[in-house]
Each structure stands twice: as C-alpha cells, then as structure tokens.
Specification:
The complex is a heterotrimer of chains A (252), B (290) and C (329). By secondary structure, chain A is α/β, with parallel strands linked by helices. In chain A, 38% of the residues lie in helices and 23% in strands. Chain A has two domains: 159 residues, 3-Layer(aba) Sandwich (Rossmann fold); 66 residues. Chain B is mainly alpha-helical and 290 residues long. Classes of the chains: A alpha/beta (252), B mainly alpha (290), C mainly alpha (329).
Chain lengths: 252, 290, 329
C-alpha cells in the first residue's frame, strides 16, 4: 500500500488538566475524501488545529508525504499544501469577496493581477461570481461558508481540511455544495472533512473516522461506521445501541 | 552599602510608597479586568485629581485627607460619566477605537490642565508633611504611614464591596463572562461605568495621599501611571491581589534602585522591567491569560 | 483596493509644488512645511496602523532616531548632511525592525503592542535626556551652514520642495504597497490573522516588514525636522507630541488610505492655526483640540475625511443615477 498522504500518529493534546485529544491516530490516502465525525466536543476541531499547525500536540507526531511536520506553523504548512477552513467562518470582513479569495490565490502567485484573475475564476466555480465586489462582512452565512471554501481553494491545496463546511446550510445549499466537494476530489485534492450532516458524509466519504471524547473509536466505510454500536452509543448515549436493535432499527 | 541601617528604611519606605502605587494600579487593573480595556487616560486623571486636591487646599483650605472625602465621590461621578458618555459610545465596541479614545482623553485632560494652570510645579505645604514616626530602626514620614493605612482600608472596602454587594457581584460576573451576565439581566453598560468610576475614585484617594509629599504639574500623573502599568503587567492584568502585591514589590525595587542607581536610571529600570514583562508574559505573574 | 491612480498623485504633488511660486509669505510656507512634515510622519504610521492594523503609540522612537542620528553624524562626526540624513533613515528603520521583531515574535497585539511602543519611545527619550552624545538636557544645535551641500538653504522654498518630494515618495510607496502581494498580505493580517496564516501568510514577518517601512518613512521626517529647525532635544525628538501627531493626521484624514495622512495633516494643522488665532496661542491648547478631534473622529467619522468624501461621492452618484432620463438631459 502506498504511503498515506497524511499520517497522524498517537496525537494527544492536553489543555491544563483536560485531555482534548487522546492517542488519536489516522491515515489519509491521497485523492480520497475522508470524514471525521463524532459528537460535539469530541476533539475534532482540536485535531484539525493540530494538523494545520495552529496548535502543537502534547504528544505524538504528524507526517505529511512521509515528512515529519509536527509543530510546524500554519503558514509553512499552507505552503506545503495543507489548508484548513474554520468551523466559525473567519472572513477578512473589511475586504470584498474578490479580495478575500485573492489572498488565498497569492500563495502561489506574486502578481496582483494574476491573483485577482485566479480568484475570480474560483469565485465563479463555487457560485460567488455575482457577489465579487461585496464586502465579505455583508454576506449570508451560506455565502460566507462558500467564501471560506473558495479562499482555501484559491491556494491550490493538496490537502484540504474542511471544518463543518456544510454547517448551518439549508438542504438546497447543501445539495449545491456537495458536488463542488466531489468535483474537487475528482481533480485530485485530498479532502478531510469534519461533518455533522450524515447524508453528505455517507454520499461523499470513502473513509470515516469517528472521534469521541478525544479518542478514535471507529474507522471504516461510512456504512460500516454508521452501523457500529459504539458509534451509536457515542452519539446517543450508553445503552442506545441495545435499545435501537431491540426496536429493530439497527439495519443499514 | 548593604547595612541594615540603610536597607531597612529603604525597604520600609518602599513598602509605604508601594502601597499608593498599588492603589493606582488597583484602579487600572479593575478597569482592565472588567472592561478589558487599557485605560490610557489613567495618568491624566490622576494628574487632574492631584490638581483638584491641590486647589482644595489652596482655595478651600481643606486638608488633603479631608478633601478626599469630597473628591472621591466627585471623581467617581466623573469616571462614570466618562465611560458612559464618552468612551463607551465613541468606541462603538471596537478595541482599536477604545485605545484611541482613551489616548485622546489623556491628551485633552493633561493639556487642559496645562492650558488652565500652566506648566509650573506647585507644592502643598503642610505642617505634618515632615513629621516622622520613629520606629527605632527607621524614620517613616507621617503622610506615608497614613497613606499605607488608607490604602489597606480602601483595599479591604473594595474587597467587601466586590464580595458582598449585589453590584460587586455583578461586576465580577461581567468580568468573568460578559454575555452570560447580560443574559442574566445585568446592565453591562451601567456596570462598565461603575467599574470605571471605581477606578477613578481610587485615583482621587491616591491623589490626596500623594499631595503632602509630591509636587503637582501637568505631567506628574504620567510618572506614577507608568509605575502603575508596570505593576499591573507584573502582578497580572485584572488581578486585584496582584496589583497590591505588585505595588509593594515595585515600591521596594524603586526604593532600592533609587538608593544605588539614581533617579533617571531608576526610571529606565522600571521601563525595562515593564517591556520585559510585556514581551515575555503580558498576562503577568498572577493574571488571566491575555 | 482601488486607491488613487498615479496621475492623481502626480497632480496633487504638482499643485502643491507650485505654492512657493505663488507666494513668498514665510507664514504660509512655514505652515505648509510643518503640515507636510506631519503628513510624512503620519504616512509612516499609516503603513503600520492603517494597512497593518497595528496601532503604535510610540512612533516618536523612529522620528527621534532619524533626527538624532542625522544630527549627531553631522555635528560630532562631520559627515555630509545628506549622507547623515540617509543614515538617519537607516537608523530609524533598524529601530523599527528591532522593536517589531521583539514585539511581534512575542505575539503582542492591540493594547499590549501600543503599550510596548509607548514604553520604548519613553526609554529612548529618557536615555537621550541624559546621554552625552545626544547633548543630554541641552540638545543638539546643527551649525548654520546655508549651502545646499549641507542640506540647508538661504530661502524656505527648497526645503519646502524637499519635504514635498519626501511626501510624494511616501505616497508612491504606499500606493505600491496597495497594489502588491505584500499589501494584500498586510491587510489580511489586519483583518484576520488566523485566517491569513491558514492561507500561507507569514504574519510575523509581514508585520515586522511593515514596521520597518513605517519607521523608515517616519525617520525621514525626523531627519528633515533636524535640518529645518536646526535644533533638537529629547523632548522634541522622542516626545509624546510627535507620537500623537503621527497618529492624528492619518485618523482624521482617513486611516488606511493613500491620501489620508496628507488630508489629515492639512486639516489638523489648519485647525491648530485657527485655534491659535481665536485664543491667543496658550500652551497646551493645540493638543487639547487635537485630543478632542481624535475622540470626535473616532466617534463620528471613523473613516476620516477620505471616508466622508467617498460617502459623499457615492451618494451623489446614486442621486444622479436615480434621476429620470430627461432630467439628466
């Protein structure tokens, strides 16, 4: 088997006395869509922050393309191709949509004109073409999520870490965004997505990791994971799996 | 050079001066802890309070300790109005704006004093200013001893207010979690103004304590406030205990430095400590994370 | 960002350049020289604060270094005045880089950053007030030598043109920044540092670079001050007055814009002159007015004069486009 693009090895993160992530290990194959799911507070965003360099792990290592990237700062990781979006969107509020995306485009382009052109292309690709000159602060939540995605895309990433990019979107907005993600994977971008929208996870992800209370408690295909009793218990509480199977609900 | 005869009085005097520094720092740290703003106008307000105490003596013949009774509520009201009517509204809630507004206030107040009263240095002459308390190993100036006692009393009073009164609890709630406090029905705008008012009231008291031993001119407040800033970053932004303890520490350090290094280098010394603490641990030794 | 175009800048500079040809009044020329000097110093502050979002309260540190290095090299080491001026700029830039490296690598921002810059400026002021090399309490007098080689002139006009040239260079530098990748990174840092990092911006490096450029421009103002007034001391070079004027001009004129500092400097200085006329020029009054203006601008017109002009322009455009066809003729 080929070396995975991203390898997270027994990463731990403690905040004072609280262990947010405990011995988390995962491997992401190149070109695949991998989902990271789990109940709220499971440590998913913390893990993303560690992978993208915003936090240093208390223990453990992270390997990208075989090289140890543990503790490298975000901007260097971005230059290596690892780009993340934020769960709570972080636009450059005072700048226009166009300028926002252009900042991303500038990662590999020096010229302002080139960056602006590339940004306009990305904007059109995600459906923001007609709000280019609007200030980012004036966009709807759905549009901001899309802006966040567009800005990350403009960097020509190799590994895209999407943190709840579908969060807060209504069904038609979700339906519009899913194909964009699929298309990205089709073009060779490796995607890891934290997601709560299960239908999207099932339809998009090829591999799923389940995080609960900081630990990876299951991994596998979406179908396998969703039927896993431990996963059900993590979401619905102790004993839920037994109750559900008693009701005959545990079939996929 | 290190004989107890020299050291002990220096340390004791440092503690006494440090107490008043601590009071000034207390106001600053209270304002930071609750409003999360660094009050750049603190020095100018102290200067204004010192001028007020000076004129209370000159014009009304009031002894500074008596004037304190009148000036404290006055400056409390002034602080309340400043926060409620000027700083709060002008800043529109943005941190960068608050910086500029408090800076603007500092400039206005200091230069109003300069314009109104000129740059001359004035002093208050009190007969007890030179009286000393004889402790055997040291002579301590009476105003400084009184100052020490008053600061401890004020600190105690403040602690009681914050722990036992409803307003005090509201202040602590807002300091900890503004949104939650708001949702619980606390009028945050009012609490902000009250806290700022407490800060300026501390300045009024400190001014009255300083007047017997220090001169007054439009720039005097800055010298003290620099020390107060250093104490606050050292003792911790938002930590009341830190402000007081830090006050004592800095008072002693300054006293000893003044003994061995002279005034200008002493001042630079304080700045250097200030810069180092800012760079290395801006939340201070006891304070909350910045 | 669509800032002013090159022709705009050239036009403004050209118009200003004609002033000494239209009047020989020393009052007018002196007023404008000082206003342009403040515009220069303010433009320096604008780079770091307006575009970079880092508010320094101690720009005197760079102004004073530019002034002192230039004066000391001339008076104590006999260096040519122009070379001394250039080295003054280099000196100020170095101080900027040093303070920036310390402050930003330690992650200081917001009020903490403002505080530390204030502290550095004060340390320099105290050092300058006691160190023999800066003349301690007495200051430095630059010897009168009214020759162009000595960066001094018989009349005011050449000095006016020099400071105008410096302002023009600063305008061009800022315009260049606005249209460059560095400028895009800089405003990204201003708007949201985490987001900037996530897309590859080395935020510490960008901030330090901005501070160095900012310090260089401000130091040029300091060096020029020394040549124009021929006397500096610690209070003039490193005093709070210049830190305040450095930030007031851009804020009043329009923070984060190319012309902001120039507009603001002219407005603030005009205000100062009017105040002096009305009240007789007592000390402290001009700063009272400046402080009040600062508060009022932040409260009511945070985008400054440039912002008000832009609003006016867009309102007029909307008005015109809403008129029916025949009324527009």
């Amino acid at each position: 088997m080929a070396e995975p693009l991203l390898r997270v090895e027994r990463v731990c993160k403690a905040f004072g006395g609280l262990l947010a992530v405990e011995n988390a290990s995962l491997a992401v194959e190149v070109g695949r869509i991998t989902a990271l799911i789990g109940p709220n507070g499971a440590g998913k965003t913390t893990l993303f922050a560690i992978i993208s360099g915003f936090l240093a792990p208390s223990e453990g290592r992270i390997f990208y393309r075989g090289a140890d990237i543990t503790g490298m700062p975000p901007h260097l990781l971005a230059r290596r191709g690892i780009v993340r979006t934020f769960q709570i969107v972080q636009p450059f509020a005072g700048l226009t949509v166009h300028e926002n995306i252009a900042i991303g485009a500038h990662l590999s382009r020096r010229s302002r004109a080139e960056a602006l052109d590339a940004a306009a292309d990305v904007a059109r690709a995600v459906g923001l073409g007609d709000v280019l000159e609007r200030p980012a602060g004036s966009l709807t939540v759905a549009a901001r999520k899309r802006l966040e995605l567009a800005r990350a895309l403009a960097t020509d990433p190799e590994l895209l870490l999407l943190d709840e990019v579908l969060g807060g979107l209504n069904p038609s907005e979700i339906a519009a965004t899913v194909p964009i993600i699929r298309c990205l994977a089709g073009r060779g971008v490796t995607i890891v997505m934290i997601e709560h929208v299960m239908q999207a996870v099932i339809s998009l992800a090829e591999e799923v990791f389940v995080l609960a209370e900081g630990r990876v408690i299951a991994q596998g295909t979406p179908q396998a994971v969703v039927g896993n009793p431990r996963v059900v218990e993590a979401y619905l509480g102790h004993g839920a799996a037994a109750r559900l199977s008693a009701l005959g609900a545990m079939h996929v | 050079m290190l004989s107890p005869v020299i050291l002990v009085p220096a340390i004791l005097n440092g503690l006494l001066t440090g107490a008043v520094y601590g009071l000034i720092a207390l106001g600053l740290t209270l304002i930071y802890g609750v409003l999360h703003i660094i009050n750049f106008a603190h020095g100018a307000l102290l200067t204004a309070a010192m001028f007020a105490a000076f004129f209370a003596h000159r014009v009304l013949g009031l002894d500074p300790y008596v004037a304190a009774v009148m000036l404290t509520p006055l400056f409390f009201a002034l602080g309340y109005c400043l926060q409620r009517l000027v700083i709060g509204p002008a800043a529109h809630g943005e941190d960068r704006n608050v910086l500029l507004v408090t800076l603007g206030l500092a400039v206005v107040i200091e230069n109003l004093l300069l314009y109104a009263f000129g740059a001359d240095t004035r002093t208050v002459n009190l007969d007890y200013a030179f009286k000393v308390v004889d402790l055997g190993i040291a002579f301590l100036a009476v105003p400084r001893v009184v100052g020490f006692g008053v600061v401890l009393a004020v600190a105690l009073a403040l602690w009681l207010v914050l722990s036992l009164t409803d307003t005090g609890k509201a202040i602590r709630a807002v300091a900890k979690e503004k949104l939650g406090a708001e949702l619980s029905g606390i009028d945050v705008t009012h609490i902000y103004a009250i806290t700022f008012a407490l800060g300026t009231a501390c300045l009024a008291i400190a001014a009255c304590l300083l007047i017997p031993t220090y001169y007054v001119n439009p720039h005097i407040g800055n010298a003290f406030v620099l020390v107060a800033f250093t104490i606050v970053v050292l003792g911790g932004m938002g930590s009341v205990t830190g402000a007081l303890i830090g006050g004592f520490v800095i008072g002693v350090v300054e006293s000893l430095c003044g003994l061995y290094l002279g005034e200008s280098l002493g001042q630079i010394g304080i700045f250097v400590i200030f810069i180092l603490v800012l760079l290395l641990r801006p939340s201070g030794l006891l304070g909350e994370r910045a | 960002m669509s800032g002013p175009s090159l022709p705009h800048i050239v036009l403004v500079v050209a118009v200003l350049a004609t002033v000494p040809l239209l009047t020989v009044s020393p009052v007018v020329l002196n007023f404008l020289v000082v206003a342009l000097l403040i515009a220069l110093v303010g433009q320096g502050w604008n780079v770091l604060a307006g575009y970079g979002g880092q508010y320094s309260f101690g720009h005197a540190a760079f102004f004073g270094t530019g002034a002192y290095v230039s004066a000391i090299l001339q008076m104590r080491y006999g260096l040519n005045a122009w070379i001394a001026f250039a080295l003054g700029i280099a000196g100020g830039a170095s101080v900027g880089a040093a303070i920036g490296a310390l402050a930003f690598r330690c992650g200081l921002k917001g009020s903490y950053f403002a505080l530390v810059t204030l502290a550095f400026a004060e340390v320099l002021r105290i050092l300058a007030s006691v160190a023999p090399i800066t003349g301690a309490g007495v200051g430095i007098l630059i010897a009168l030598d009214l020759r162009p080689q000595a960066f001094q002139f018989q009349s005011r006009a050449p000095l006016y043109w020099i400071v105008l040239a410096l302002v023009a260079i600063a305008l061009l530098i800022v315009r260049l920044i606005e249209r460059s990748r560095f400028g895009a990174w800089l405003v990204a840092v201003r708007e949201n540092e985490d987001a900037a990092r996530a897309v590859g911006v080395d935020t510490a490096r960008v901030k330090i670079a901005a501070m160095t450029i900012s310090a260089a421009i401000t130091a040029a103002g300091g060096g020029f001050y020394a040549q124009y007034f021929l006397f500096i001391d610690s209070g003039i070079a490193y005093g709070p007055w210049i830190s305040i004027e450095a930030l007031l001009a851009p804020i009043v004129g329009g923070i984060g814009t190319v012309f902001g500092p120039l507009l603001g400097a002219l407005a603030v200085k005009t205000l100062g002159e009017i105040a002096k006329l009305v009240t007789g020029g007592a000390p402290g009054l001009d700063l009272v007015i400046y402080g009040s203006v600062l508060i009022l601008v932040v409260a009511f017109a945070p985008q400054g004069i440039a912002g008000l002009l832009t609003q006016l322009h867009s309102r007029l455009t909307r008005l015109r486009s809403s008129l029916p066809e025949r009324a527009r003729g």
